């Protein structure tokens, strides 16, 4: 083992070194920033039952208050966010939302597109301008 590695291993996760995460448990604050080489979080797939999916999730949000986005994906002119929504008139919804950079920068809280997946399996949203609410369908065709 290289001397520098031995020093790092000896001090990794100790209470006196707040620059390193402990090997198990602990709390981290702030953003995790990756460089452009080998970026990402990954692991080998893990087979779970449907009902135990939350126990095997790579990323997990443990509670929801209002709109709680879990993922944001930047596009050329805006971003898509995926999150859960839980308010008095909507509960247990998964929401895909598109916001333009212009609305984001102006802090208008206005979305361009929003698709909600309800807990009963219904999909609510703007679907190619032809539908607002669908509870079942074999296919969707243009209303040209």
What does this protein look like?
With 144 residues, the protein is of the alpha+beta class. It has a domain at 49-134. It is 13% helix and 28% strand. It has helices at 3-11, 53-56, 101-106; strands at residues 66-74, 78-86, 93-100, 113-117, 123-127, 131-134. It has a 6-stranded antiparallel sheet with strand order 1-2-3-4-5-6. It is globular, with a radius of gyration of 21 Å. The model is unreliable at 1-9 (pLDDT under 50).
Distance between the termini: 70 Å
Tally the beta strands.
6
The largest beta-sheet arranges its strands as 1-2-3-4-5-6
**Biggest sheet features:** 6 strands, antiparallel
Count of DSSP-assigned helices? 3
Mean pLDDT rating: 77
Fraction of residues in H or I helices: 10-25%
General form:
globular
Give, in order, the helices and strands.
HHEEEHEEE
Radius of gyration: 21 Å
β-strand amount = 25-35%
Outline the low-pLDDT stretches. Answer: 1-9
The secondary structure category is alpha+beta
Q: How is this fold's topology laid out?
A:
Elements: H1 3-11, H2 53-56, E1 66-74, E2 78-86, E3 93-100, H3 101-106, E4 113-117, E5 123-127, E6 131-134
Antiparallel strand pairs: 1-2, 2-3, 3-4, 4-5, 5-6
Short description:
The chain is of the alpha+beta class and 144 residues long. 13% of the residues lie in helices and 28% in strands.
Summary keywords:
single chain; 144 residues; alpha+beta; six-stranded antiparallel β-sheet; 28% strand; disordered N terminus
């Amino acid at each position: 083992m290289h001397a520098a590695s031995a020093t790092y291993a000896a001090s990794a996760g100790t209470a006196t070194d707040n620059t390193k995460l402990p090997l198990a448990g602990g709390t981290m604050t702030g953003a995790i920033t990756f460089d452009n080489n080998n970026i990402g979080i990954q692991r080998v797939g893990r087979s779970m039952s449907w009902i135990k999916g939350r126990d095997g999730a790579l990323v997990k949000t443990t509670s929801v208050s209002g709109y709680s986005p879990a993922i944001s994906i930047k596009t050329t002119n805006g971003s898509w966010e995926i999150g859960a929504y839980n308010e008095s008139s909507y509960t247990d919804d998964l929401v895909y939302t598109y916001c333009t950079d212009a609305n984001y920068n102006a802090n208008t809280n206005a979305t361009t597109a929003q698709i909600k997946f309800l807990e009963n399996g219904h999909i609510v949203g703007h679907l190619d301008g032809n539908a607002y609410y669908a509870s079942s369908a074999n296919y969707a065709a243009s209303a040209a």
